[in-house]
Amino acid sequence: MKKNFAILIVFQLFFFSLLAQPGNLPPVDKSPMDMSYYPANYPVLKIQDKITEPLAARVVYSRPQKAGRTVFGELVKYGEVWRVGANEATEIEFFKPVRIGGKKINKGRYTLYAIVNEGSWSIILNKDTDTWGSFKYDTKKDIVRTAASVQKNDTVVESLAMAFEKTSSGCNLIIAWDNVKASLPITF
Amino acid sequence: MRIYFPLLIVFIFFIACNHKEEKKDTRIIKIPTIDSSAMVKPERTVNPYVPVDVSPMDISYYPADYPKLKMTNSAIKPPYARVVYSRPHLQGRSLFKDVLKYGEPWRLGANEATELDLYTDATIQGKKIKAGRYILYCIPEKDNWVISLNSNIDSWGLHPDESKDIARFVVPSKQTKNSVEFFTMVFEKTNDAVELVMAWDNVEARLSFIF
Questions:
Q1: By CB distance 3.0 to 4.6 Å, which of B4, B28, B70, B87 could disulfide with B182?
Q2: Mean pLDDT, rounded, of chain B
């Protein structure tokens, strides 16, 4: 009963959002976009004058939902290039030079991809920005390809989440969805 | 009873959806009042790493849908501009009664300050603006909006720092026939310019760029 009610609410929201965007205005994405900074919450710290270390990185990505599906191995096929998001390709920006996988990365914008396998992920930084998904992924434009460490979580993460966590040598980019969490070390 | 009421609403709007739009303006405008009871914070906002925003972020490029165009035409020239902004929704509120006040700065979005990325130099109302990253906010008045281009990038949208304004532009605002539930920013090409359309509720303002 409660579940039916929830489903109906979802349907209502769906119809409202369709109706609420007249003319040619863009509808609201099913997988909403989001951004994460390192240092975490940098924009809030900035207006509070509480910044203690300089801006290093930002990721802009869309957040698909698990929605009852098995994510890794099914929705995201093992061994194939995945856009680590939805809709527009996931963008990672560095505001100063960093090192990833032993390689120096200049400051600037990059597109982030991953190749997921059970227990191991390859993370790819590619210089072809402002693109859609991974449909036109071109290995020739790769900047770096490196392994991320992967662990299984007990809890299930419904919406894809990305965040930067402080480490002793920089930060880790955390990518979490369903019951998997990957971390990519970034040093600076 | 609890179950039938939403079902009825879905049904009514499903019917409304399938009719031609021009006759249904009155119904469309009425939606937000019903919307308010349904628009609770969705359960899916909960997340152990990063909560999902109630006002989702979105991105609009010029040329419109640039990333999709690029997918079908890899020889495409670089984009001219994009905005990255969050999309608050009315949830039954009336924009200038319940959400915004005339004469008070508004961040043209929600959460992080709305970002304008110019990939190339542009001219706005005769003023040359260099390629780069900026934030935008506005000061709405009844018949016009002041749009402010500001250099305090990577900041949160509240309390914009006016001392970092780079330029201010006054643009007319107009009433629209239909109400827009989610705040919307989109670039539209006109004969001699590119307009950044800013629309919410039944108000629309446009800022013209020449690239």
A1: B87
A2: 85
Contact B208, B124 (CB under 8 A): yes
CA A138 to chain centre: 19
Q: Are strands B81-86 and B114-118 parallel, antiparallel or unpaired?
A: antiparallel
Q: What is the DSSP letter of B98?
A: I
What's the pTM value of the predicted model, to 2 decimals?
A: 0.83
- ipTM given for this complex: 0.86
**Mutation for B interface: A12, A129, A151, most B CBs within 10 A:** A12
Closest Cβ–Cβ partner in B10, B56, B89 for A33: B56
pLDDT band at residue A136 under the 50/70/90 scheme: confident
DSSP secondary structure of A48-92: TT---S---EEEEEE--B-TTS-TBTTTB-TTSEE-SSSSBPPEE
Nearest by CB: A37 against B2, B9, B154: B154
